[in-house]
Amino acid sequence: MSLAGMTSKPWIWAWAAAALAFAATLVLTQGRGAGELAYAALSFGAFAAIVGLGQMLVITLGPGNVDLSIPATMTLAATLALKFMGSDPGTALPGLAIALAVGLGVGAANFALIFLLRLPPIIATLAASLIYQSLAIWSNRGLRIKPPTGLAEFATGRFLGLPNVAWVGLALALMVWVLLERSLWGRWLLASGQNLRAARLAGVPVEAVRAATYLAVAVFAALAGYLLASFSGGAALNMGAEYLLMSIAVVVIGGSSIAGGNSNVPGVWGAALFMFLVVSMLNSYGAAAGVRNVLTGTIIIAIVIAASSRRARI
Amino acid sequence: MNRYRILLPVVSLAVLLGLTFWMQPRAMSYFGVNLLFNLAVPIALATVAQMFIIMVNDIDLSIGAFVSLAACVTATWLNDAPLIGLLAMAALILAYAGMGAVIHALELPAIVVTLGMSFVWGGLALFLLPTPGGAAPEWLRAIMKVKPPLVPMAVVAALLIAGVTHLLVIRAGLGTVLRGVGGNPRALTRAGWNVMQLKALAYAGAGLFGVLAGMALVGLTTAADANIALRYTLLSIAGVILGGGEFTGGKVSPVGAVIGALTLTLAASFLSFMRLSPDWQIGAQGAILILVLTARLIFARRGETT
């Protein structure tokens, strides 16, 4: 198999799996509710896709690079933004600015730990996430502040038939794709992920690339948290919890290599849709929560096994 | 080298313990110490489980879900029908060994496979206990509540766990070979070892300690639910690293891992003595982790220059 064939194909599998889950659900309803299902998948998939895109960039940096602070960042950004907005109309944009600033701060703190203290990224983001989590608990104090109505309407609204959050997710995906495939920075990122030492010797500013990547993942997580809180009517302390595993799962199912140096933007969206569709498929077949989880896990592993045997040994 | 590796975890635990006693002298008693470290026993066991995985250069994102499942089995089957319960536990350990073998044979990334398995364990736990409940077997509760003379149960348990795993992993020949899987698997293959079997064995060790962690947890809480130990995943990784372990090269310390778990537990309760808001309990664990690792960096740099 040619190199181009190997690197361009993996995303097909995530989309095929998503289509399969979609079709399997519709078989049961005899084709009714197809539009609603697709709409829901795009809405909920958008959050997974946004955090997945960030996680993908980090994982692309190579072995050992993964951001475990995504859930805490989402919660902290959403909590602080909503607290600032306090349901007042017309505060949506300053609120967004606060969420993004939280993202930048978190990303900078994470990278400082990694760079200055030479901590392995897993342990640095883990330790820092515990602190972010405490910050969120402390500033939230169990309050549930509603987002401003205009913002809530935007987050749950649609444009040209697609959910607004999906438009945001698609725009980000396009941006990341262009950055990775067409920009110098993207080439640097891929080069660093494939061989850090070689990239450094070739004159790639490796540490700057790493810093930008850890900032990007945190900003993406903060944006996802802001949108999710607006979408679901407020920030909750456990709102990010499921996105830790989700963010890694969509990257891997999407066909990006967990060993780094090879990322796949369309695959992340395909996998994000799949993760939602597989749950709704199991739901519509009447599977209980336990069975649903077991099957979800089995399917994830099956896809990883299929992907690894197809990709051959390089 | 190993001797210095253990020094920092010991010192950090001693400092933290000293500060706690200084601020709350009443904690310096049989019951005080027991209270401080009671919940550390299952965390220490889970940390040792994680250590078995990190020892072979992998990472386990499912240990929290697995301990939760073991806790649910303990609170249901092991209580109602001990034989079935024991068989189920054996099956869980075998499943872990199988997971290790599959990861090695198909060259899968452990981080993803364990992530998928965490859904499976969580699902099985929900299946067993859809709502929180169950009951701890009488004998298990008795073990966890036993009051040995002079030193409280939690300390005895920690010493026991550290001692046994030290013998298994550092002293025993097989333990050395297992650490070699993380150090240089190719050399082991050349020396005639079957690395797949060794990896399965390391994972079985993790499964065994994961099961023990679940049992110990139920012995303390007397009931279980499907999410009871989810936070153990991150705590156990932190504990291993805090105890001087490294992610690659089979460089782990069982005694350090137990101490790391104790330190993290103490960090959480330390704040209540400082009369700080409990909001910061989780954050304190993060801060301690960063502090100790910073100290390690400073020592390592000094080691380089001298």
UniProtKB/TrEMBL annotation, chain A:
The chain crosses the membrane at residues 12-30, 37-62, 93-116, 122-138, 159-180, 211-231, 243-261, 267-287, 294-312. It comes from the Bacteria. Keywords: Cell membrane, Membrane, Transmembrane, Transmembrane helix. The keyword S-adenosyl-L-methionine does not apply. GO terms for cellular component: plasma membrane. InterPro entries: ABC_transp_permease. Its main location: membrane. It is found in: Cell membrane. GO terms for molecular function: transmembrane transporter activity. It is a multi-pass membrane protein. The keyword Ion transport does not apply. This is Autoinducer 2 import system permease protein LsrD. It comes from Tritonibacter horizontis. The gene is lsrD_2.
From TrEMBL, chain B:
It comes from the Bacteria. The keyword DNA repair does not apply. One of its GO terms (cellular component) is plasma membrane. GO terms for molecular function: transmembrane transporter activity. The chain crosses the membrane at residues 7-23, 35-54, 61-78, 84-103, 110-130, 150-170, 200-223, 229-248, 255-274, 280-299. Keywords: Cell inner membrane, Cell membrane, Membrane, Transmembrane, Transmembrane helix, Transport. It is a multi-pass membrane protein. It is found in: Cell membrane. This is Ribose transport system permease protein RbsC. The gene is rbsC_10.
